[in-house]
Design a protein that fits this description.
Layout (H helix, E strand, L loop, with lengths): L1 E5 L6 H16 L4 E4 L6 H7 L10 E3 L12 E5 L13 E5 L9 E4 L3 H4 L22 E4 L5 H7 L5 E2 L1 H4 L5 H4 L2 E6 L10 H8 L2 E6 L6 H11 L12 H7 L1
C-alpha cells in the first residue's frame, strides 16, 4: 500500500494539494490511501471543487498523528505542516512536501523556493484536469493576511466583496467570484499560495498589491501569472514524485 498524508487541520491549500496528488496516484494505483490526521473534511468540499470518481472516498483514512507509525505502508507522501515536531519514526519510504525550511531526516524532501524552504528542487503541482470550471458571479474575494492602512485603502476600491468566512469550507469559491485580490503587507508571509494558479485557470481576474515589494510565496506565484508560466505546475503521470511513489 502507498499513501498520501494530509496533516493540516483546516480547509486550505494543503488540503487541496494532498487530495490532488492522492487522486492522481489513485487513478494509477487503486490501493492508494489518503490519510487525514488533522480533521475530517466534508466530502462536499471535494465534490464541489472537482470532477472525480467518488469511489476514491472509500480510500480515505482518519487517524491520530501517533497512529502513523503503526500503518503498514510501503511509501508515504506527506503534506504535513511541521511533521518533524511529532518525532515519529516511520518505517517506510517517506516523501515530504516542505511547508517550511525544516527537513525530515531519512526522507525525500521537496521545496520550491530556496529563500523560503531552504531547498529548490521541485515545482509544486496542481491537478488542473480535474478542476470544475465555473461561470462566475460578480463578486471580489480579497486575501490579506495582515491589514495595514495601505491594505484598508485598497479595499475601499472594491465592491461586492466576499469575506473569507463566507467561503472557508466551500469548494466552489470560483463560482462566487470573478475577481481575486491579494494584498501583501509587511509582516505577513505566505509560503506557496495556490489560489493564483487556480484563479488563472478559472479565467478570474487577478489584482496583486505588494506594499513593500517583499518576496514571499505570493510574490513568486504572481510572477507565474506575469510570465504566463502557470501550466508548468500541471500534475501528470510524468511528475517525479508520482513516478517515485509508484516505482
Amino acid at each position: 500500500m502507498i499513501a498520501v498524508h494530509c496533516g493540516c487541520s483546516v480547509y486550505n491549500g494543503t488540503l487541496s494539494d494532498s487530495f490532488e496528488y492522492f487522486y492522481k496516484l489513485w487513478e494509477l494505483n487503486k490501493d492508494t490511501k489518503l490519510i487525514f490526521t488533522g480533521f475530517k473534511p466534508d466530502l462536499n468540499f471535494f465534490k464541489q471543487k472537482y470532477i472525480i470518481d467518488e469511489k476514491c472516498f472509500n480510500n480515505f483514512l482518519y487517524i491520530d498523528y501517533n497512529q502513523l507509525k503503526n500503518l503498514t505502508v510501503k511509501k508515504l507522501l506527506s503534506f504535513a505542516h511541521y511533521l518533524y515536531n511529532y518525532k515519529i519514526n516511520l518505517d517506510c519510504e517517506v516523501h515530504l512536501i516542505l511547508n517550511d525550511s525544516n527537513k525530515l531526516n531519512n526522507a525525500y524532501c521537496y521545496g520550491e523556493y530556496n529563500s523560503i524552504m531552504g531547498l529548490s528542487n521541485y515545482i509544486y503541482k496542481i491537478y488542473f484536469d480535474i478542476h470544475r470550471i465555473y461561470k462566475h458571479e460578480n463578486n471580489t474575494y480579497i486575501k490579506c493576511l495582515k491589514d495595514t492602512l495601505f491594505s484598508l485603502k485598497i479595499k475601499q476600491n472594491y465592491h461586492n466583496i466576499i469575506l473569507q468566512k463566507q467561503v472557508y469550507n466551500r469548494g466552489d469559491i470560483f463560482k462566487l467570484i470573478d475577481n481575486f485580490v491579494y494584498i501583501k503587507t509587511p509582516g505577513s508571509y505566505d509560503r506557496h499560495p495556490r489560489m493564483f494558479a487556480e484563479a488563472y485557470c478559472q479565467g478570474v481576474n487577478i489584482d496583486y498589491y505588494n506594499e513593500d515589494n517583499s518576496k514571499d510565496g505570493s510574490y513568486y506565484r504572481y510572477q507565474d501569472i506575469l510570465d504566463n508560466s502557470v501550466y508548468k505546475r500541471t500534475l501528470d503521470d510524468s511528475d517525479i514524485i508520482i513516478e517515485r511513489m509508484l516505482n
